């Protein structure tokens, strides 16, 4: 990820020395804060205002690594009046919108120094569509080596409309009109009468949605390696991040006594409708969908039949064990790498070896589902929630769609040979005990965020605080105490992988080991050095490498930045440099009052064989979905539960795995702050 792993990117390392010479971290943070602050209004920073007025992007091409090619293209579009107007909705899945946002991204990526990047950002912020601008800034801060330590403000405070219900936004406007400080309660979109969302509506969490957006920004489907480097195992990561959302949602449903999600099928009605209760800042309300609608062809996007054809071509590839490239040659997928190719094919990203033939199942499905309310454009509706990563999980169809794709991935994974005893064994190492310190217990806690950037204002009128609070899932802190015996006679590097899966479904029917393991939720992964003899490793829930901390509020970020700038103090925001990863508060599935039983698997494997980079045991910033540089773990995502389990007794025979049962409790506790 942005922290340590960035150093591994060849392009990144070369530019880093330039970075330290040209602007302090606090200055960079200040610039990004103000570029994103009140993004639908005019710039507020005096220096930025000056840039917007007087900067000529094409005046000195020596500041660009492409000799100004990208900026020339964008300036030409601007002068020709071809760019999307301001105060209009933006969707990444709209080809022209995306093209424009990426033109700006391209300009920023080619700026050789920070100042040129800020000048361009300020200049185009006043001239381009706000949604395109925000997207380009987020993508550039994530991928540009010069922005390595910059923390992006919480997206739900930059574009609150995409995360907050219409009713709440309307109250915020009213509070702004009255100039009265206000705290508004947010409710979830699901109602008690809607069985589908009863109990699980909390899963449309602002942090979970932010994670989803950030993942797609770090591993964008539009990525070209010419921007800087190849995104390691991008396709496999696509499968894994969505697999984890899918299995987590099922665990939440079981917690709430609901059936696991059923997959979506093109030739069957979409059973669940929904009302998103969300509106664009500009462009009206997001469309809703009634129950039991049949899939219809969407004009200009795809026919339902096309989707079925693409589906069967992909399933054919899985059955054959190879993907056919554009030139007719074959790529063998019957190995660890196969899932990576298949992920690129299914999404599809520009890495797909044959998008012409295999299409773009995932991206097209998002648009198809998003448009079912107005498939022929008769009512001129804006895009649906499925056409934005921020809002997609509001549609229960999202999880059905991803269950459908997850099942395709499983079809492939299950076609590979099972792991053998020798594959799994870590000779001389055994896990002798695993104990949990503390209780596995979840609760809800109100979380506040600001709606200031949702409402319109002017520089002349002072801001009043307008906040909303929303219940979010959290859990009590706990630790794992893992007792490991090392009889190798020497120190050994070990990878510790922790997974949990629901022991039984909502009817109390036990999952087979093979079905259970496919539903495994990854709780942590880290490296340790084992000294000879027995040692106990204590790992805290707060250290989980698959989760991230909640970024401080936009206001706190700004205050800290300004304090560091004026006092010359250090701006230490290191912990928040990545927002990709589930929020740590979301680590555990909700569970229930009686204690929901989970299988807990702690797998200790050969760290020296697994590690793709050195010294992982000293690296406490290892971030799981890392995008820059090499992915730290050589094993497939989900290892060792990614492959079909022919005979589960192997997992009991190897001594380096530990299988126990734990219960996760939820007693209806809700911490209010008002
Ligand atoms: Cu996604």
UniProtKB/TrEMBL annotation:
Top-level taxon: Eukaryota
Q: Which residues form the signal peptide?
A: 1-21
- Looking at the record, the residues that make up the Tyrosinase copper-binding domain are 395-406
Molecular-function GO term, any one: oxidoreductase activity
Is Signal among the key words of this record?
yes
Q: Which UniProt keywords apply?
A: Signal
Task: Give any Pfam family that matches.
Answer: Hemocyanin_N
Electron transport among the record's keywords?
Answer: no
Family membership: Belongs to the tyrosinase family. Hemocyanin subfamily.
Q: What is this protein called?
A: Hemocyanin isoform 2
- The gene from which this protein is expressed is HC2
